[in-house]
Known about the structure:
Low-confidence stretches: none
Structural class: alpha+beta
Distance between the termini: 25 Å
Shape: globular
Number of strands: 3
Order of helices and strands: HEEHEH
Largest sheet: 3 strands, mixed
Oligomer: single chain
Mean pLDDT: 92
Strand content: 15-25%
Amino acid sequence: MYDVHPVSGHFPSVTPEQYRKLKRDIGVRGQDRPIALYEGKVWDGRARLQICEELGLKPKIRILRPKDRPVAYLLY
């Protein structure tokens, strides 16, 4: 659906156990935190996006702009 932003790829992905827990949680409660896009690519939320696709859910998306301080968004 979306490519991963090159900067985002420098941050670690979730472990398989974290992925299973997150998938179970999203399956039960839905997606709480949106997938952040910057420059049209996934900035934060690679696992959430994949889980939404696997569960057939429409992902919640947030578009980041430079004024949103994208790097700070990844760190917090």
